[in-house]
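Example for tutorial group B:
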């Protein structure tokens, strides 16, 4: 069975640019890293929420590509 240890949160800004934060898992510890600016943070709980907050605050990227119709 393959174990997934990386996931991503992506959002688009008002200029149509995609911003991605990767969530890497090692045991119970998660590390989040922004591909746009290199920002990094350890997060044991709610790493995806922290990734969304970073994208909104640092890059004004709030458009979820999954909700686009």
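The residue assignment follows.
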């Amino acid at each position: 069975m393959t174990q997934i240890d990386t996931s991503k949160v992506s959002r688009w800004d008002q200029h149509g640019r995609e911003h991605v934060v990767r969530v890497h898992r090692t045991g119970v510890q998660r590390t989040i890293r922004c591909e746009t600016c290199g920002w990094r943070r350890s997060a044991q709980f709610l790493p995806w929420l922290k990734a969304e907050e970073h994208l909104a605050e640092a890059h004004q990227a709030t458009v979820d590509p999954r909700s686009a119709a």
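The two ends are 34 Å apart (CA to CA). Compare this with the pattern of hydrophobic and polar residues in the output above.
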